Each structure stands twice: as structure tokens, then as C-alpha cells.
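Sanity check. The docking grid for adenosine-5'-triphosphate depends on where the pocket ends up, so I'm generating a full predicted complex first rather than guessing from homology. Inputs follow.
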Amino acid sequence: MTQIKNIGIFTSGGDAPGMNAAIRAVVRSATYYDLEVTGIRRGYEGMINGEFFAMDRKSVSNIIQRGGTILKTARSEQFKTPEGRKLAYDQLKTHNVDALVAIGGDGTFTGARIFGQEYDMPIVGLPGTIDNDLIGTDFTIGYDTAINTVIDAVDKIRDTAESHDRVFIVEVMGRDSGLIALRTGIASGAEAILIPETKTDINNLCDRLEHSRKDKLSKIVIVAEGEDAGGAFEIGRQVKERFPHYDTRISILGHIQRGGRPSCMDRVLASRVGVAAVEALRDGHRNEMIGIIHNEISYTPFEHAIKHHIEINPNFLKLVEILSI
Ligand code: ATP
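Predicted complex below; grid placement will be based on this.
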């Protein structure tokens, strides 16, 4: 095993609050262990284009509390081709980078897995996505902040409910995963939660709305963007059709869910896995995602982290049914 001297770090895919805290942790811990760090801007695209710069402990001052990512992020079609990955590898060699920390979601780790198979380049990943849809960690960096942003917004939406029979259909992020919807639905006292993992039954939704207490000031339905009934506007249209007397409102929360200062949970998670990533590379780990399971650092092969679909806990859906009476 050759000794690692220079760690390249990049963020990729969708940005998530807490990525900066992870970057800081990697840079500071690498410095602590006398390793050099090379920042790579704009993910795989920047790697291909040679957007490299030296980082030291000062370059990550005053970023732990900032949302987004100071390294910028991008999606790269080129990296999906063998030619693009060859260019990326050549750039890494030119800049004397001999190991990588990738911060991103399942797409990022799919790319990292392929790259790690093709080239002799140790890579470890940090779970940075608001979706929480990776195996090998209880929570991903950004998820806690995002769900807190959602409940803050839903609380405000609820405050505007002054008349009876007002229904709010609130769409939250989650094209392939209902984990944001599931937790925020419970935390905001929703009447129903619609997610991609279960079939959406509008009749069933309308029955629930009809049979819920008549004296409720507002009824909230949380919809993950990837559910299969056509999205919040279509659901709203059908609810209106069945209950013309309801004042039905649609709210798409959109990109505010990605922004904002990372929560304490996300900062601590990012700091722990960031340090563990550097230690893992020093110990010879490669092609693994570093996460936290049951409060312990865990190492999950990329292949496993991305392959398996997260099972939705059916008790969560039952909770909504019980608590919304
Ligand atoms: P999020 O979950 O927040 O969207 P992500 O990491 O899943 O983050 P993607 O856009 O899916 O985001 O992936 C990020 C990048 O990873 C892609 O733009 C591409 O460069 C690379 N990537 C994804 N799939 C592959 C693949 N099959 N081969 C090579 N690279 C890939």
C-alpha cells in the first residue's frame, strides 16, 4: 500500500446544507495528519477541466455554518464516459492527487465506484444529500436541515389557515424517495402523506379528508414530488373536484429546502464523517461510503450504498393515520 500524501476533495450532484462542514472536517483532519489537500471545484466536471487548488486549514475558516458548498457542485455527462474519466485521472496525476474524498449522493458514488474500478485511486465517499436515500448511514448530511426547513414552512402555511375546510397540498422534495415527506408529515401533523414508495390512491385520500374532524381549521397533505398521481397540482385539482366547498391551496416548497444554515445535527454528522474519511484513507479503505449507524462510524462499499432501495417504515404511515384523527 502506497502512502497517501495529497487528498483531493470535491462535492457533486445536488448541494446539501452541511457539505461545507464536511469539507472543513476533511481539510482540518488532513492537516492534522500532515497530509496535503487539493480542492476540486464543480465536481467531476471540474476534475476533468483541471479546476484544482491547494487548500489549508485557513481556507475552511468560517464555513461550518454556511449552506451550499464552497467547492461548488455540478453534474457531469462527460464523466459518464470512459474518455471523460481518463481525462479526470490524468488531471489528478498531473496535480499529484493520490486519493479522493467525494461528497454527494448515489449518482456521485456510482461514478466513484466505476472510477475506483478502472483506476488505482483510493476513494471514499461522504453521504451529502438532503434525500437521506443511501444505505450505510442512519442520516445523510443535509437531511436534518432540509426537514427542519420544511416543517418551519408548513408551520407558517398552517398559520394562514383561518377558515374552516381549508386544505393545503404541500409538495416537498423527493423524486425517488419519500423520506423527507414521511418525517415532515409526522412532524407537521399532516392528514396524509403521499410518497413514491406507495401507490397514491386519490379516493382514499379524499375519504380521509372527508372523515377527518370537521372542526379542524386546516388539513395538510404532504406530497413527495415523485409520488405517482401527477404531483401536487393534479392532486389539488382532483381534491377540488370532489370537494368544491373546500378552499384547496397548493404550495410547492422547492429549492428553499436545499438552502439555509446547516442544523447542529448536520454539522456534527459532517464533522464526524469528514474526520473518519481521512482516517479511513490512511488506514487503506477505498471504494466505501463513510456513514454513521447507531452512533458508530460505518464503512459501506459504494456498490451496497447505492444499490439497495431504502425500505419505508410502515409504522410511520400508520402513525399519521392514528395521529390525524
Ligand atoms: P443528489 O442525490 O443530491 O441528486 P447525486 O450524487 O445522486 O446527488 P447525480 O446528479 O445523480 O447526483 O450524480 C452526480 C454526478 O455523478 C453526475 O453528474 C455524474 O457526473 C456522476 N455519475 C452519475 N452516474 C454515473 C455513472 N453511471 N457513471 C459515471 N458517473 C456517474
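Relevant for the grid: The first helix runs from residue 19 to 32.
Also worth noting: The chain has a mean pLDDT of 93.
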